[in-house]
C-alpha cells in the first residue's frame, strides 16, 4: 500500500532557474520513508532505540519534470515486499495535483546493529511490512 505525504519546495531547494536541485529528491525520498514509518505507528527513532539502523546501500532517481519554487509536491512511498535481506522503498514524486509525475526512484537499505554489523531484518519490521 502506498503512503502519501506533502512537502513545499522552499527557495533553498532550487537553483538559479527556480527548479529543484536534483539532490533534494533524495531528501524528499527520506521524508517519504520517515512518514511511512510514522503512519505505521513506528517512528524511525523507535527503530533506532531498538538498536537497528538502516543505511542506504543503493539509490536511484529518474526525473520527468522539474519541481519549482513554492510548489507543493506529493511524495508517494511504497515498500517492495519482495526484498528479503534488507528493505527497499519505491518513490514517486508528483505535483500537488497528484497526477503529474516529477520523479521516481528507490532506495535500498541494509539493517545494521549498534556495532555496524549487517543483520537480518528484525521480526517487528517483517510484521510491519507483511501487514502493510
Give the helices and strands, then pairings.
Blueprint: E1 3-8, H1 24-39, H2 44-49, E2 56-63, E3 72-79, E4 87-95, E5 101-109, E6 111-112, E7 118-119, H3 123-131
Antiparallel strand pairs: 1-3, 2-5, 3-4, 4-5, 6-7
Tell me about this structure.
This protein is an alpha+beta fold. The chain has a single domain (3-131), classed as Thiol Ester Dehydrase, Chain A (Roll). It is 23% helix and 33% strand. The protein is built from 3 helices and 7 strands; from the N terminus they run E-H-H-E-E-E-E-E-E-H. The chain has helices at residues 24-39, 44-49, 123-131, and strands at 3-8, 56-63, 72-79, 87-95, 101-109, 111-112, 118-119. The strands form 2 sheets. The protein has a 5-stranded antiparallel beta sheet with strand order 1-3-4-5-2, covered by helices on one side. A two-stranded antiparallel sheet has the order 6-7. Strand 6 (111-112) and strand 7 (118-119) form a beta hairpin. It is elongated. The N and C termini lie close together (6 Å).
The tally of strands reads 7
Q: What CATH architecture label applies? A: Roll
How much strand content do the residues show?
25-35%
Question: In percent, how helical is the residue content?
Answer: 10-25%
Q: How many domain regions?
A: 1
Mean pLDDT: 94
CATH C-level name? Alpha Beta
* CATH superfamily descriptor: Hotdog Thioesterase
The 3D shape can be described as elongated
Strand order of the biggest β-sheet: 1-3-4-5-2
Structural class: alpha+beta
**What sequence of helices (H) and strands (E) makes up the elements?**
EHHEEEEEEH
N→C terminal distance: 6 Å
Note the total helix count: 3
Integer-rounded radius of gyration: 15 Å
Outline the biggest β-sheet: 5 strands, antiparallel
CATH topology: Thiol Ester Dehydrase, Chain A
- Low-confidence parts lasting 5 or more residues at pLDDT below 50? none
Amino acid at each position: 500500500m502506498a503512503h502519501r505525504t506533502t512537502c513545499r519546495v522552499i527557495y533553498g531547494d532550487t537553483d538559479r532557474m527556480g527548479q529543484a536541485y536534483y539532490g533534494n529528491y533524495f531528501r524528499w525520498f527520506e521524508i517519504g520513508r520517515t512518514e511511512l514509518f510514522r503512519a505505521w505507528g513506528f517512528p524511525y527513532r523507535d527503530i533506532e532505540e531498538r538498536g537497528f539502523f538502516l543505511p542506504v546501500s543503493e539509490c536511484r532517481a529518474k526525473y520527468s519534470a522539474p519541481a519549482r519554487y513554492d510548489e507543493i509536491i506529493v511524495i508517494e512511498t511504497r515498500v517492495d515486499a519482495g526484498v528479503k535481506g534488507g528493505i527497499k522503498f519505491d518513490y514517486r514524486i508528483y505535483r500537488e495535483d497528484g497526477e503529474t509525475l516529477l520523479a521516481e526512484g528507490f532506495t535500498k537499505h541494509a539493517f545494521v546493529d549498534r556495532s555496524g554489523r549487517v543483520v537480518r531484518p528484525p521480526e517487528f519490521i517483517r510484521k510491519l511490512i507483511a501487514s502493510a
